[in-house]
Design a protein that fits this description.
Chain lengths: 108, 121
């Protein structure tokens, strides 16, 4: 089955830019979605189809995807952005959704 | 406002059965693919099962295939997950999740708050 690899943790200072990667074999050929999960809450969709944002998601959140790496970029990071972030794609062999292991973003 | 409310979780012995339900409101339930996604304590998200808008197609993760059955009743705006032969490793918070369209291959745009299933002897 298709495997997505995320760094377990990323740390960033407030106001700086955070980049969270999601690695997978030729992931650039797939549509990538990103979810944010704050402590004790259900996930929410923050980026879909690489770079689209649902209504209500700030423009500070953006996505890109090329080669073997997809990236979620958060500019002007705020304390409120502290959360776990998950990437997700569709395994084309099974048509099943696959999630990355998640990255905990810490705002120092 | 879109709402998904899960119920049916609890503590169950290994080998037992449990049926989870999800009540949807605030949208036309029958227009959307629906899924169950679980999260073991302190772990990441794991897709479990999905069902197309009309129930005509169902999919299961290898880890639950043959043990879990997903179903839906669009007239009652409800989604179910029948879980049989439960294992300790099925212990998790189970989320009801709505796809961003009629197919479960689409991203999840709404999540419930989850119902906790604990499998323990």
């Amino acid at each position: 089955s298709y495997v997505l690899t995320q760094p377990p943790s990323v740390s960033v200072a407030p106001g700086k830019t955070a980049r969270i990667t999601c690695g997978g074999n030729n992931i650039g050929s797939k549509s990538v979605h990103w979810y944010q999960q704050k402590a004790g809450q259900a996930p929410i969709l923050i980026i879909y189809f690489e770079s689209d944002r649902p209504s209500g998601i700030p423009e500070r959140f953006s996505g890109s995807n090329s080669g073997n790496t997809a990236t979620l970029t958060i500019t002007r990071v705020e304390v409120g952005d502290e959360a776990d972030y998950y990437c997700q794609v569709l395994d084309s062999n099974s048509d099943h959704p696959v999630f990355g292991g998640g990255t905990k973003l810490t705002v120092l | 406002e879109v709402q998904l409310v899960e119920s049916g979780g609890g503590v169950i012995r290994p080998g037992g059965s449990l049926r989870l339900s999800c009540a949807g409101s605030g949208f036309t339930f029958g227009d959307y693919g629906m899924s169950w996604v679980r999260q073991a304590p302190g772990k990441g998200l794991e897709w479990v099962s999905g069902i197309k808008w009309n129930g005509g197609s169902t999919h299961y993760a290898d880890s639950v295939k043959g043990r879990f059955t997903i179903s839906r009743d669009n007239a009652k705006n409800s989604l179910s997950l029948q879980m049989n032969s439960l294992r300790v490793e099925d212990t998790a918070l189970y989320y009801c999740a709505r796809a961003n369209g009629s197919l479960t291959t689409l991203p999840v745009d709404y999540w419930g708050r989850g119902t906790l299933v604990t499998v323990s002897s």
